[in-house]
Design brief:
The chain folds into two domains: 252 residues, Luciferase-like domain (TIM Barrel, Alpha-Beta Barrel); 73 residues, no CATH class. The protein is 41% helix and 16% strand. The chain has 14 helices and twelve strands.
Length: 336
């Protein structure tokens, strides 16, 4: 099992990259370190910083938001960061976010996300492959642009910079059409709401295809306290990160076996009954996203914890001993 380390910088008002923690994870044989973005710090700048203070750990985004950058711009960022890192280290995880952020923060149309994803990844791949000047005529994105406001002088271009190594593209997706797109066009999948039965057979059969899910790890003698501390954020995501018609976190909870509970949390949250929404989060659901307890309890739960077909686990861990424990359990430890 490959291990990734999750950094939650995007949730903080201040940016403090935990360099020592990342270096320790690298020494323990962790496969990768992962950043994200919402509407604060971006996902790519911290990876450029980490590229200078680490040697081999892979640098992943889980995820960069599609609406934040044109595909050519994201390709430029990716080539630059990977070159700074020495090559063959960047993993480009992409997600669409939701209409509240796409239209409210980035000022982009929500459009048809599945079609936009296909256009976006296709253009991104063309830029990174650098085989010819890039042109694309898709239903959502056209390059060169010839829509409203165009003066018709755009022309296909090819990146001046040569990528120093191939850059894998992973897709964050949960619904069937976008999941199929990940298997068709990408090297990896970051599933939203992977059900207990695991990775679908047609996706898991793709040679060399990675599927990473996530969890938090806390060594504690107060398991209930850890789970209860997860309730406010979980209820906010399931109930408040989106609208009644569009909320991927609610949908992800439903796919993981809790559809009625997800709907109830949404109802309570929208009614302003936030404490009740938090109380409605099932403990069993929280346990699916957390390994908490004594080292013995965590060891026992680790056996069979990852759904079938998962190739890696991105963990959030704030304790050095939790990093060490997971390296032992996953068999990644490389040091003497």
């Amino acid at each position: 099992m490959k291990l990734g380390l999750r950094l939650e910088l995007y949730r903080s008002a201040d940016l403090a990259v935990p360099v020592d923690t990342v270096r320790r994870a690298e020494a323990l044989g962790y496969h990768s370190v992962w950043t994200a973005e919402a509407y604060g710090s971006d996902a790519l700048s911290p990876l450029a910083y980490l590229a200078a203070v680490t040697d081999r750990i892979k640098l992943g985004t889980a995820v960069v938001q599609l609406a934040a950058r044109p595909p050519a711009t994201l390709a430029m960022h990716a080539m630059t960061v990977d070159a700074l890192a020495g090559g063959n280290r960047l993993i480009l995880g992409i997600g669409v976010s939701g209409p509240q952020i796409v239209e409210g923060w980035y000022g982009q149309p929500w459009g048809k996300p599945n079609l936009r994803l296909r256009d976006y990844v296709t253009i991104l791949r063309k830029v990174l492959d650098r085989k010819e000047p890039v042109a694309h005529d898709g239903p959502e994105i056209q390059l060169p642009y010839r829509g409203p406001g165009s003066i018709g002088q755009g022309k296909p271009l090819k990146s001046i910079m040569h990528p120093v190594a191939p850059i894998p593209i992973w897709l964050a997706a949960g619904a069937p059409r976008n999941t199929a797109l990940a298997a068709e066009l990408c090297e990896g999948w970051l599933p939203m709401g992977l059900p207990p039965e695991g990775v679908p057979a047609d996706i898991g059969a793709k040679d060399g295809f990675d599927v990473f899910t996530g969890t938090t790890v806390t060594i504690t003698d107060d398991v209930k306290g850890v789970l209860d501390a997860m309730r406010p954020l979980t209820a906010m995501y399931v109930g408040g990160m989106g609208s009644e018609s569009h909320n991927y976190h609610r949908d992800a909870m439903a796919r993981r076996g809790f559809p009625e509970e997800a709907d109830r949390i949404g109802e309570l949250w929208r009614a302003g009954r936030k404490e009740e929404a938090q109380a409605a989060v099932p403990e069993e659901y929280l346990e699916q996203s957390a390994l908490a307890g004594s080292p013995k309890r965590i060891r026992e739960r680790w056996e069979g914890y990852a759904p079938p077909g998962v190739t890696g686990m991105i963990i959030g861990a704030h304790q050095p001993e939790a990093l060490e424990l997971m390296a032992d359990l996953a068999g990644t430890r490389e040091e003497n």
